[in-house]
Amino acid sequence: MTETAPPSARPFQVDLRGVVDLLGRHLYSGPRVYLRELVQNARDAVHARADLEPDGTGRPWEVRIHPAAGPGGVLRVVDDGAGLTAAEVGDLLATVGRSSKRDLLDLPREGLLGRFGIGLLSCFMVTDEIIVRSRSVRGDAPVEWVGSADGTFSVRELTGPEAEGIPVGTEVRLAARPDDVALLDHDGALGLARTYARFLDVTVRVARPEGTWDTVTQEPVFAATGERRADLAEQVRAFGRDLVGAEPFDTIELAVPATGTRGTAYVLPFAPPPGARQASVVHLGGMLLDDRWDGLLPDWAFFVRAVVDTTGLRPTASREALVEDDALELTRAELGAAVRRWVLELGLRRPGRLAEFVAVHERSLKGLVVHDDELASFVLRWLRLETSVGVLTVDELVTRYPEVRYTETVDEFRQVAALAPPDRPVVNGGYVHDADVVRRLPDVFDGVRVARATVEDALDALDVPPLDDRATVARLEDRAGTVLDAVGCDVVVRRYEPADVPALYLAGRDALRALDRGAARRVAPALWAGVLGKASEAAPGGATPSGPARPRLCLNWSSPLVRTLAATDDDAVLARTVQLLYVQALLAGHRPLRPDDRALLTGALTDLVQLSAAR
Ligand SMILES: Nc1ncnc2c1ncn2[C@@H]1O[C@H](COP(=O)(O)OP(=O)(O)OP(=O)(O)O)[C@@H](O)[C@H]1O
After folding, report:
1. Of 483, 397, 480, the residue nearest 437 (C-alpha)
2. What pLDDT is stored for residue 490 in this prediction?
3. pLDDT at position 150 over 90
4. Ligand 1 mean position to 80 CA, how many Å?
5. Cα–Cα 20 to 30 A to 255, which of 217, 230, 405, 550?
């Protein structure tokens, strides 16, 4: 039997061009991130040095950027960090995925931003060659590493005059590719440094062409806490003004110590466009992660814009989003709780101010409470609804009237509200979301019931005239009904308050739909008129309302005018009066006058004028 030798394990080969292409096209949002990665490495190196030399060297360690001086120029990023030995350079810089920023258990080392061991490669998106010169704080000779986009590298120790004057720390040099000069020259580098490193905890400066410096780092006032936050209150607000583009309605302090997350939520003083998602500005250890990230706050918190800095949440490899893990979930829940607390406290301490807030965001809040149990539980009570006894907050409504009646349309509301007794008001559910909001009430408030109020029910609830008057009433209904038959309206007589309203025009949903279809048919072009005609035939009530779908003029038996009318035997007087009452009731009910109605009004007025003139 012949034995075959076991296959020997061989390392993968990496095609660097392919990896860089992958990073540039699919991982990072674009070549701009090269500076973020360089500054981040420099910042981590300064932190690493601070661990090794806790007493410092007497001057603050910092990061200095020397932009490229136009085409053919070289950009240099210099740090006073821990530096690298020749062995480290060979190992760390030349191995894709190797990082010094993970501990023995391969966990990210606390306080350091890097972790994946790929950041430096992003420089190949703007250059063909990376030169790193470094002197380690551990004391070896300085070293130079040259990495090429073709996947080769070289390392050499610097000696003699070349080594002289090289301080502890690292310098990275990139020669700009012609197409990318704009990202490495003064304006480009300064802009990128300001974007990414503005709140970094290590000073970052950018050299001007004339040799002076711009310091880009500043205190992240939005993340201040305690007394410092109180001292900086005006700066915190000013930051919000810049961010939001207007004076924020309020500021909410955010702090989740468990994940090292601190910041501020700015309450928007205007309603964001419908469907806009909240977009937070997220920093990781002071380095900008994203200025419009929508995964930090719960979806319902659309009315704030948050800006935070975190040290305990994990970035994705692109460093442009956070990893969706338990820590992020906890943070999101706690940030949401802070916003919720703000709403509740404002309601308790400054209800007038809360009313202003609700007025600004009411439409969206109403839209959201319908689907979002959490938001509903704390915001529903502050929303306002129109009722037949005026505008009430939901809280006032359910406290005073636990049995809530509502209409589905504004038309129905106008009619039902005219008949609703003050102790049984009705809510106008006709505006966008309002009926849905009312239907939500029993889910949030114990003991609250809701019921739809219809025109038919409102009519049924009215008192009929006393038995003794029945014959007179029946005759009036009959005669008036004949007069209004031409406009498809029935007449009923009931008693209701106030007595000085002689008549109400009542049309249920079916009747209103039939009327609207009829009106649409009259103004529609021939083709659509045919379609609408078919729809009317198929729909209950038909084109000219009939049966239960017919609108009704409800005459008020408590009105002296109606009683006088019932007593007259003059059919002409009765007809004209009924016609005028009908038109008056239509107008009071905000119903548009159809051509038939206008003809009726004109006829009645003409008769009256002729009668008066003949006297
Ligand atoms: N300026 C520097 N000073 C000292 N060491 C550095 C510097 N820049 C890079 N290094 C070393 O090179 C290693 C690889 O850097 P690289 O940017 O590729 O990855 P990383 O920072 O570890 O992780 P990430 O991909 O998350 O940025 C680092 O872990 C670090 O040890």
Report:
1. 397
2. 95
3. no
4. 14
5. 217
Residue 77 predicted with pLDDT over 70: yes
Lowest model confidence (mean pLDDT) among 408-412, 419-423, 441-445, 517-521? 517-521
Cβ–ligand 1 distance for 33 under 6 Å, the answer no
Residue type, 29: S
How many other CB atoms are there within 10 angstroms of residue 53's CB atom? 13
List of domains in the chain: 16-215 (3.30.565.10), 221-349 (3.30.230.80), 353-459 (3.40.50.11260), 463-508+551-614 (1.20.120.790), 514-545 (no CATH)
The predicted model gives 83-94 an average pLDDT of 86
Q: Annotated binding site: which residue ranges?
A: 37, 41, 79, 170
CA 402 to the chain's CA centroid? 32
Q: Are 402 and 439 in contact (CB under 8 A)?
A: no
Name the burial class of residue 284, with classes exposed (0-12), middle (13-18) and buried (19+) by CB atoms within 10 angstroms of its CB.
Answer: buried
The pLDDT of residue 542 is 43
Name the strands in the sheet holding 403-407, side by side, starting at the edge strand that comes first in the sequence: 390-393, 384-387, 426-428, 403-407, 449-452
Residues with Cβ within 8 Å of residue 6, at least 6 apart in sequence? none
Determine the residue of 93, 120, 171, 323 to mutate for testing ligand 1's pocket, defined as the one with the most ligand atoms within 8 A of the Cβ atom: 120
**Residue whose CB lies within 8 A of the most ligand 1 atoms, among 99, 132, 174, 319, for a mutation test:** 99
Q: CA-to-CA distance for 580 and 603, rounded, in angstroms? A: 10
**Helices within 60-143 (DSSP H only):** 86-88
pLDDT tens-place string over residues 329-340: 999 999 999 998
Out of 314-328, 398-412, 536-550, pick the least confident.
536-550
Give 108 Cα–ligand 1 centroid separation in angstroms. 12
What pLDDT is stored for residue 334 in this prediction?
Answer: 97
Tell me the C-alpha distance between 121 and 142, whole Å: 22
Q: Is 265 helix (H, G, I), strand (E, B) or coil?
A: strand
Is the shortest distance between the CB of 536 and ligand 1 below 6 Å? Answer: no
Contact 431, 391 (CB under 8 A): no
Q: Is the peptide bond between 465 and the residue preceding it cis, with omega within 30 degrees of 0?
A: no
Q: What is the ipTM of this complex?
A: 0.97
Residue linked to tokens 């990496």: 14
Position 481: which residue type? G
Closest CA to 367 of 302, 434, 429, 444: 434
Ligand 1 lined by 37 (C-beta under 6 Å): yes
pLDDT at 109 over 80: no
**What pTM did the predictor assign?**
0.76
Q: Cα 56 to chain center, whole Å?
A: 46
What separation in Å is there between the alpha carbon of 99 and the centre of ligand 1? Answer: 6
Q: Residue 42 CA: which ligand 1 atom is closest?
A: 1
C-beta 406 within 6 A of ligand 1 = no
120 Cα: distance to centroid of ligand 1 (angstroms): 7
The CB density around residue 608, as the number of other CB atoms within 10 Å, is: 14
List, for residues 163-218, the tens digit of each pLDDT value: 998 999 999 999 988 889 999 999 999 999 999 999 999 999 999 999 899 999 99
What is the overall mean pLDDT for the chain? Answer: 88
Q: What percentage of residues in the chain have a pLDDT greater than 70?
A: 91
Q: Where are the beta strands (DSSP E) in 507-609?
A: 552-556
CB atoms inside a 10 Å sphere around CB 325: 11
